[in-house]
Design brief:
disordered C terminus; Nucleotidyltransferase, domain 5; 38% helix; alpha/beta; 320 residues; single chain; 7 strands; 11 helices; 12% strand
Amino acid sequence: MEAIFATQPPLRLTQTACQALDIARSSLFRHRARLKRPVSEPNKRAKPPRALSAAERRTVRDILLQPRFADQAPAEVYAALLDEGAYHCLIRTMYRILGEHGEVRERRRQRRHPIYAKPELLAMGPNQVWSWDITKLMGPVKWNYFYLYVIIDIFSRRVVGWRVADTENASLFKELFHGALAGSDVSPGQLTLHADLGVAKSHSRPHTSNDNPFSEAHFKTLKYQPEFPKRFETAQQAEDFCRRFFEWYNQDHHHGGIGLMTPDQVHYGQAEAVHAARQAALDNAFRRNPERFVAKKPEPPAKPNAVWINPPDKPENFQV
């Protein structure tokens, strides 16, 4: 068949061959026409005039590879630079530049959880809904663990209380909870406590991570830190590590769920000032290179105004 396609015998022989092979002559002629066409090179996309220059891309990559940013996500770097009054490019552009050099990948294998429903809880400001949970920290030998208790404010994502213990015990949590209350400005009846187990007004269902997403996400952030050890030799070592982590998390971590602000900034009412300063930095960037912003003037990530645990099917005017 390929010989008939590639050669051009007399018309009578072509007709006979097509009948013998049970193919239409029109199909044969179309195939021959395609073989005669010159091989076309795919059109290369022209570089947009607003794209970063090679020097600017090198600058962005050099910044991303600085020691202080080497273990941070591009969103974290973007927010930190904005807080310093500097804007270089969008978060997605940072990912593209890293991807060109094979520097974007998952740090660990991911486990995917199914989607479940409900309880429904809403926080429209700090100290309205706290979530608490316990995670295991591997001890010095197999089957030996330390237990990390953490209480987190779901609106600001601030860790308001934590402790490392040798066991899971409700009385240990009660001590932690009352200590966190004593250090917070919480009026009677203001606070809802959400938990997987223990003493709480709201409980999630067993083995349902969707019911306690903020605690689950927080533990992932903890355990994906580059310096997180495989095992802790002593409870004191675990406490020292957690103390450093929670100080960084509350004061310096730019959280994607709260407009790339730090938990302390949102918890202590600094969100408006931070948002305004970032907008000023983006306005300066727009005035310098307006052609790089096609759809509209750049805006910083939105400030949090309300946070849900399992929002209703159609929440209105709320940021999830």
